[in-house]
Specification:
The chain is about 65% helix and about 5% strand. By secondary structure, the chain is an alpha+beta fold. Among the domains are: about 20-175, no CATH class; about 195-325 and about 350-365, Alpha-Beta Complex (Aldehyde Oxidoreductase, domain 3), CATH 3.90.1170. The protein has a five-stranded mixed beta sheet, sandwiched between helices. A three-stranded antiparallel beta sheet has the order 4-2-6, covered by helices on one side. Strand 7 (about 355) and strand 8 (about 360-365) form a beta hairpin. The chain is flat. It starts with a helix and ends with a helix.
Length: about 450
């Protein structure tokens, strides 16, 4: 792979995600296509397809004044409706941010329905402008692009259909069940992509590989003969180019220890990678390793699976706040979080020590585990769930349901630990019959998880 492309892969991944979730890209693309369509149809009207509509008995040819009036009306209407659509979208975004949290805005900004709706009206407006300038009458030599006018009318009809769709889509998209379901489905997709990881393969015989790299790992742990590579700027890790990391480690015969992962915040100069042996790490190698990280201003769900987990936790926390007191929204969040945890329990966790295609350990990353996922999700939600009997009972049921999918005893131990923490918090928040119900349900769940 060329070095320039290799060094820019993390940045390209970051840019690709930014474009995919941006609100401007699809409308801009549709506007550009409208310009091309307008020029193409006018060219057909003036040449190959001239008079194509003359043989249609039901079609009445437009005069220059009439065609100009029709297209002007369509263009004026489209830009007005586009402004209204944008205003409605901003109101929906403000409502979503206040109800579900500011981090949920990423989901609304990347909503294809909103993007295509705005793009349709802008594209129709741009198309009409392109065609309008070609209409001539009087002494200039009359020219009316009949096909182009017909296409403009069809675009106007399509825009009406899109407007009807948008009126339905906006209230549907801010419905709390749909908001939570969208985050939950995205979390499940992230689990499918994340596990197992693609940063090399785990060594076929972990013990043999450990013996082969024992001295190198000891050097990394002690910091002797190790090159320490720090972050070059402040920000969040948005993307990690695992392929470049592995290729660089293999090409330079290095063992890398990755200290941070997507979602972590970095201070400038903070330790990012330790590389052994230091004698093989020059400035060029350091640049390649640094370029393997895409650092930005905010966390994103591109590679940070816990970003989506935290979104569910935040929605549940807001729903269970004193001012809202909506336990059923929290229950919905628990359902989707439980579905993701059950999916994680069925997948192989990526090894922290990862080998290249020759079986040589090249990268040591932070360890992943089912217990870590459960702690991040349910552990972050327990203090809010414990305040409400309905949510607490459902959380215990969800932990029990996840346990039914676990094949490793250690996974059930992690679930039992979260159930015990929930009971401990509930005993501080609840009392009377509500607390008695939680205790009874916990006893049943604890037996099932043993």
């Amino acid at each position: 792979m060329p070095r320039v492309v290799k060094g820019m892969r993390a940045r390209l991944l970051q840019l690709l995600y930014d474009v995919r979730v941006s609100y401007w890209f699809v409308p801009s693309l549709m506007a550009g296509l409208a310009i091309v369509l307008g020029a193409l149809v006018v060219w057909l009207d003036a040449g190959p397809a001239a008079g194509l509509l003359d043989g249609l008995g039901w079609y009445q040819k437009a005069k220059p004044e009439g065609a100009h009036e029709v297209l002007s009306t369509i263009a004026g209407s489209m830009i007005t409706v586009a402004g209204v659509v944008f205003s409605i979208t901003i109101v929906a975004l403000a409502y979503a941010a206040s109800q579900y949290g500011p981090r949920i805005l990423t989901n609304f900004m990347s909503d294809r329905g909103n993007q295509v709706t705005l793009g349709t009206f802008i594209a129709t407006f741009v198309y009409c402008l392109v065609v309008l300038r070609t209409i001539r009458g009087g002494d200039e030599g009359e020219f009316v692009p009949q096909i182009a006018v017909m296409v403009g009318l069809l675009l106007a009809l399509c825009s009406i259909g899109v407007l009807i769709y948008f009126i339905h889509h906006v209230p549907n998209s801010i419905n709390v069940n749909n908001v939570v379901a969208r985050v939950g489905k995205q979390l499940l997709k992230s689990v499918e992509k994340r596990f197992p990881a693609h940063l090399g393969d785990p060594p076929p015989d972990d013990e043999v590989a450990r013996n082969d790299t024992q001295s190198a790992e000891r050097a990394l742990a002690e910091g002797t003969g190790v090159a320490k590579i720090g972050a070059w700027t402040n920000g969040y890790i948005e993307t990690v180019d695992d392929e470049t990391l592995m290729e660089t480690a293999k090409d330079k015969d290095l063992l890398l220890r990755l200290h941070r992962e997507p979602g972590d915040y970095l201070f400038a100069g903070e330790l990012l990678i330790s590389a052994w042996p230091s004698g093989k790490v020059n400035e060029e190698t350091q640049r390649d390793l640094c370029r393997s990280y895409g650092i930005g201003n905010s966390r994103t769900p591109a590679q940070d699976i816990f970003f989506l987990v935290d979104e569910l936790v935040e929605i549940a926390a807001r729903a269970l706040s004193t001012g809202v007191n909506d336990p059923f929204t929290a229950i919905t969040c628990l359902d989707w979080l439980g579905a993701a945890a059950a999916e994680v329990s069925r997948r192989r966790m990526p090894a922290s020590r990862r080998a290249d295609d020759c079986g040589v350990v090249r990268v040591i990353a932070n360890a992943w585990s089912f217990a870590r996922f459960v702690e991040q999700g349910f552990g972050g939600m327990l203090q809010y769930v414990a305040r409400d009997m309905n949510a607490a009972l459902h959380a215990l049921d969800t932990l029990g349901a996840i346990g039914a999918h676990c094949t490793a005893s250690g996974d059930r131990v992690a679930l039992a630990s979260e159930a015990a923490k929930l009971l401990s918090l509930a005993e501080q928040e609840l009392q009377g019959p509500a607390l008695a119900k939680v205790r009874s349900r916990h006893a049943d769940i604890a037996r099932s998880l043993n």
